[in-house]
Amino acid sequence: MGWYQVEFLIEGYLLPFLLGHLQVSEIMLLEHASTDTGSTADGKPRQYALGFVAANDGHGFFQCFQTATAYLEFFLLISSFRLGQPFKFHTGAGTPLSDPTALGRRKVTFPKYEKVTFLNETPDSELSELSKEFCKPIWEARDLFLKLESEKELIMQSSLGLALRYYAAALQADSERRLSDVVIDLTIAAEALFSTGSNFTRNLKDRLSKFIEEDKEARAEIGKTIGNFLRVRGLIAHGNMTKIPLKDVRTFNLYIRRGVEKALTMKLYTKEQLVASS
């Protein structure tokens, strides 16, 4: 079987305006696309990127779609975590490709969203220091993705993969001002990492606080905040919450980020590994 190029339209602020394209890996290319005239829930214009993924797993055309989609999904989960931004994607056409070096040269789908060619075709090394600061977050996301790429399937099937999915869902809900869903999704992300047994609230408070903080006094304060957050989650789940404390949501979000960051750094992917390290 030969190579196929699968095209994607990615919604979200993935590439800064100063970066016209990004070669993520040998089999993935991103290009900044034109901005939609519509707007998001907060009134900002929608930003788009075009994604091109090369796939050749030897199992035929339709399997290549699944392989390419899983590859992009993992990259967007890592990018969503690193950038703190939600992303959606739409799958386009799959076309024969001579080899990965020809990736992105021919586009079939999403004609409305043309590549923005005036932003820059400047090599990264020639960008100004200020431009590099704007590009730094997506470069860091790319580097983290490449570091984890070989363990993609292991991570996606693990407790950490589940936490990444629900953390990304929380970001999406936040962008759409669905605060109650943010609380539920963040709680599921935390439970995926540390919750076991019937006394899940105590387990989660103790394990997450110990995992992200060494100082005992700071742990106690973190545990108190987690407890408050979980009470809010319980009230929402039973339809009794009228006002959600935004400060607690933002703080709990930070705790989840710290936990996921440490888990990725230490390569602790399963719940058993995470609980043993907390």
Q: Give the overall silhouette.
A: globular
The count of β-strands is 5
Poorly predicted spans? none
Count of separate structural domains: 2
Counting copies of identical and different chains, the oligomeric state is: single chain
Order of helices and strands: EEEEHEHHHHHHHH
Average pLDDT across residues?
Answer: 87
Percentage of residues in DSSP E strands: 5-15%
Alpha-beta classification: alpha+beta
Q: Helical residue percent?
A: 40-55%
N/C terminus separation: 47 Å
What is the strand arrangement across the widest sheet? 2-3-4-1-5
The main β sheet shows up as: 5 strands, antiparallel
Measured on Cα atoms, how large is the radius of gyration? 20 Å
Number of helices: 9
Write a structural description.
The model has no long low-confidence stretch (mean pLDDT 87). α1 crosses α4, α4 (159-175) packs antiparallel against α5 (179-194) and α5 runs parallel beside α8 (246-266). The protein is α+β, with helices and mostly antiparallel strands and 278 residues long. The termini are far apart. It has 9 helices and 5 strands, in the order ββββαβαααααααα. It is 51% helix and 13% strand.
Summarize the structure.
This protein is of the alpha+beta class.
Features:
278 residues, 5-stranded antiparallel β-sheet, globular, 5 strands, single chain, alpha+beta
SSE order and pairing:
Blueprint: E1 3-11, E2 21-25, E3 28-32, E4 48-55, H1 61-83, E5 88-97, H2 129-148, H3 152-156, H4 159-175, H5 179-194, H6 200-212, H7 216-237, H8 246-266, H9 271-276
Antiparallel strand pairs: 1-4, 1-5, 2-3, 3-4
